Amino acid sequence: MNNKVENIGNQYTSKENQKKQRQRKKMRVVRRRITLFGGIMLAIIILLCIMLVVQKHSNDKDAVERKHKEEQYQKKQDEEIALKEKLNNLNDKDYVEKVARDDYYLSNKGEVIFRLPNDNKSSKSKSSDSDN
């Protein structure tokens, strides 16, 4: 159908053709700009997604490390409490006297300590319990 229609070479048609060509050029420029800005936006979005994934991985790793450190801290606090109790016991005269009598067979003047065969086994078990 296009082949059968001929253009009239007057001013009006030539101006209309020029308008159409300008409009096509503008549309090409607009499409190129949209494509360029769309590509830039897509690159920014991809970059942000990659940063998000990397940050999430880093946060997960840090959370695991923090949990581990908190467990270590709790163990250290428990150990500190146990050591303070031990220190308080060592400052207690009755406790020191009891340990000296039980573990080291020390006696006061005039006391005689008898060691029975069963005592050897029980003193070993006491010392192994106190080591833990």
Structural features, described:
With 132 residues, the protein is an all-alpha fold. It has helices spanning 11-91, 93-104, 117-131. The N and C termini lie far apart (102 Å).
What is the CA-atom radius of gyration, in angstroms? 46 Å
Going by helix content, strand content and strand pairing, the class is mainly alpha
Helix % is over 70%
Number of helices: 3
Question: Unreliable runs, pLDDT <50, ≥5 residues?
Answer: 125-132
H/E element string? HHH
Q: Taking all residues together, what is the mean pLDDT?
A: 85
Global shape: rod-shaped
N- to C-terminal distance: 102 Å
Q: What is this entry, summarized?
A:
This protein is mainly alpha-helical and 132 residues long.
Secondary-structure map with pairings?
Layout: H1 11-91, H2 93-104, H3 117-131
List keywords for this structure.
single chain, 132 residues, mainly alpha, 82% helix, 0% strand
